[in-house]
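Title: Request for sanity check on ABC transporter prediction

Description:
We are preparing a figure and want to confirm that the structure record we downloaded matches what your pipeline produces today. Could someone re-run it with the sequence below and paste the raw structure tokens into this thread? We only need the token string, no images.
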Amino acid sequence: MTNQVTIEHLSIKHGDQSIVSDLSLTIDDGEFIVLLGPSGCGKSTLLNAIAGLLDVSEGRIFISQKDVTHAQPKDRGLAMVFQSYALYPTMTAGENLAFALKVAGLKKTDIKARVDKAAKILQLEPLLQRKPSQLSGGQRQRVAIGRALVREKGVLLFDEPLSNLDAKLRTELRLEIKKLHQLLKNTLIYVTHDQIEAMTLADRIAVMHNGKIEQIATPAVIYREPATRFVAEFIGSPAMNFVTGEVSAGNPASQFNADELQLTLNAAYPQGPAELGIRPESITPELDTQGEFTLEIIEYTGADCILWCKNNHHTWVVKTHSQFPGKAGDKLTLSFDNSQFSLFSLTTGKRIYAN
């Protein structure tokens, strides 16, 4: 049986407020998809609707080719991991894993086999006799994940499961979740506002904004070819540089002009007003006493450093190696990799493609 999830023209409203609007999405069997976006974009609302925890206003939801739009959560063939661990404090880790199976009336031998399997996968075997208060945050979250695994459902939902953990634990659990998906090959839908989680985990990312999907694609495509101005700005740290100007004809490539800045594009584009974006790592800085840019601030991040460079009209953020010899006040020349330019419409915010 395929574990495909299909959402058709889904709308969700709270009173007169639209939370999700006419959203359609197909998640393939065994795919790891991440719903990414800022707070309030509708990503958790969409996940809760798939889980059956929210009523939908319009549209349909299919899981394993079955219409579950109005089905109870227990009848949808899925399991969910929440942001909070929600473990029973008086039960051991093993008892927490087994509880839902006992309620479902499974045989003791079947319960033990499922708990042992999940504990082995998640490296919980030495911890099964401990209560939640005796576990670290990462261990508690692994128990919460295990509680979903023992149900042996083909579709797993994760609602920001790592947001309560510190940076080191987030990295460790991220790897665990990735390995878990590679091992089990469940269909996995994961909600986060953290772009690093999304980029490292997902087969595809659905970037959400104002209740709609702005773009759905692989992490590489999302990063290199953002479909909208919002996606371009939301993805990437430091954020993409933007400048407003005019595209004019050139031979063989168009020109982009913005105040004192004249750049040759890598192809012919429609003429007219546009916004140009380029990522900080696609700009190369060179010390030049005659350069038109002044280095204002240097931020060291370890392997890299971030330069804030300004001329009369624009400030550009540049990402370069940590051994860059410049200091605040130095003059610079900046070289732009025109193969990495993105152009966006000033009216629609959508990506402009070459003619």
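Thanks, this matches our download. The first helix runs from residue 43 to 51.
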